[in-house]
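Shipment paperwork, digital attachment
Item: protein structure file
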Amino acid sequence: MKIKHHFCCAFRDELKETLDQLSIPYESFSMHPVREDSYLVFDIFEEEKDFCSVIQMIKDGDTHIQQVIYAEADLLAAEWLTLRCTNTSLELAREETIFNCFEPMEGNGYRHREIAGNPFYMNKPVRWEKKHFAASYDLGVEHLFCDGYAQGMLELKEAPVRFEAVLHAKTGIGLENVYYFNITHCLPLEAIALCGEEKKVICPNCGRIRYEIRDNYHLHIKKESLKNCQGLCKTPSIFALGPYYLVPFNLVSRELYLFLRDHGMLKNLTFEPVTLV
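Attachment content:
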């Protein structure tokens, strides 16, 4: 297990010079019409010898995200794993049909938004190349899309997934070789074992509850609730991704993880052990 630190920092000459001196790869980009290097983006593992030198250069206002990277042995030691996608390259069309937004606030925005359950639309087919799963920035990394190969293999496993057609935005006809990966088995709320790392927030208007979690939040599930799961399930959407959008955790069994691995379907997917209680 390793801890990777991801940084997005306002451009500073001294930071760039330090990264160059330490031979740490980085990308520079800008949202300014003139400057080409307003931000520096880079990753570094906590175990690297230069980590302390870099962390001293980080300032308030810089984005800093920690991610635990698990070794294969860590994953195989767990009975169940969480499942997310690392690629959010898919572009959805007809954005106005994706979400239901309700309880408008003063000014702009809404207190809540959730996936409406309508068909998803895209403007063009997906070029999968060697990957079989991808996600959309609009929906987040918890909501997956897959190609026909993944669909066929998981149907052979009788996994509890509904493969929903994605429609062409202009014609309304289903696109070939792309499906929304809709996990149909949802655990009851009582299956989640809160561990004290969650911040419970109650909507002052409607009483809806959400749990705000940190980047490296570790999911705890009551083992008894997984007894009848067929290798794949999800939690209710109660975890906060930003202040208004709630997401689930997807769970796969060790057996299904090995099936995905042995059939070459791990690209763009990330897994973390679940603690069973």
